Amino acid sequence: MKKLLQAAVVSVELLKPAYLLLTVDTGENLEVSAGQFAMLSAPNVFLRRPFSVHDAEGAKLSFLIKIAGAGTRGLAELKTGAKISLIYPLGQGFALSAKKAVLVGGGCGIAPLLLLAKQLKNKPTVILGGRTKNDIVRAAEFARYAEVKITTEDGSLGVRGLVTAELQELSAGHAVYACGPEPMLKALHKLAAEKNFELQVSLESVMACGVGACLGCVTAIKKSGNVCVCTEGPVFRAKDLPW
Ligand SMILES: Cc1cc2nc3c(=O)[nH]c(=O)nc-3n(C[C@H](O)[C@H](O)[C@H](O)COP(=O)(O)OP(=O)(O)OC[C@H]3O[C@@H](n4cnc5c(N)ncnc54)[C@H](O)[C@@H]3O)c2cc1C
Ligand code: FES
Fold first, then answer.
1. What is the pTM of this model?
2. Which residue in 95, 174, 190, 197 has a CA-CA distance of 20 to 30 Å to 124?
């Protein structure tokens, strides 16, 4: 059940110029599914901002955050011990499948995939994709739970190219879980239709409330019409999206 919590900042670690790992102690050990998210208050903006749960250990939660604007800059400046308000856990996470899992993350889209790799019974493969090596973070942490492959568009780390190049061998025996930029998710959707594998995607709509009240995050679903990404998602089965 979602709660409004006051958490204490445990650490703020700058990973690469644009990424940070924020760990907070919520004081409550709530059950969380990989893919669920929290709305975090940031010091210098009015509205809370949504972030996927990257890792959860008891009452401690970690968020992998790409600095984008005022809110995320404010989070980067938090000091250990500072108090932060959050609403958590929100949304529907990934549905775990018995099939061989392949996790695909583009840039900060890797954020929800660490907890997923931990929650899957069998060791998955994870593909971390970025424009350059500066977009590849947490590879060593992923390697504790998954076989890691890296792709960069400029070839500065791992295999040169897009994440889709690593997925040509997939078949109906695979379940693919993805999060990242929409063009990447749409390319995966096309590939899933061609190769007949199962695909779940986490969508990143702009969100104001995170709890189904503002209707700012509405998206169309094939059978149900318009739904809120914050409550019906952010994870959807790609075949249900009108792409
Ligand atoms: C369910 C969900 C989970 C998310 N999980 C993460 C996560 O784990 N890590 C992470 O770094 N980011 C995540 N995001 C995106 C994150 O919420 C935004 O980057 C953040 O709100 C930007 O806040 P800001 O004040 O720094 O930037 P703003 O000043 O609000 O915006 C700066 C720039 O970022 C763009 N932007 C803002 N929100 C989004 C968004 N939702 N998607 C794409 N672009 C956006 C704006 O259009 C603008 O160009 C998630 C979004 C959703 C909906
Ligand atoms: S963010 Fe307000 S309804 Fe989804």
1. 0.96
2. 190
Residue 69, ligand 1, Cβ within 6 A: yes
Residue 19's Cβ-side half-sphere holds a number of Cα atoms within 13 Å equal to 19
pLDDT tens, 207-238? Answer: 999 999 999 999 999 988 999 999 999 999 99
Q: How far is the CA of 40 from the centre of ligand 2 (A)?
A: 14
Going by their DSSP bridges, the two strands 198-202 and 49-52 should be labelled as unpaired
Query: CA 143, 146, 152, 157 torsion: positive or negative?
Result: positive
Q: Whose CA is nearest to atom 7 of ligand 1?
A: 51
Residue for token pair 């210098």: 44
Q: Which ligand is nearest to the CA of 213?
A: 2
Contact criterion met (CB below 8 Å) for 26 and 53: no
Residues 124, 238: Cα–Cα separation, whole Å: 20
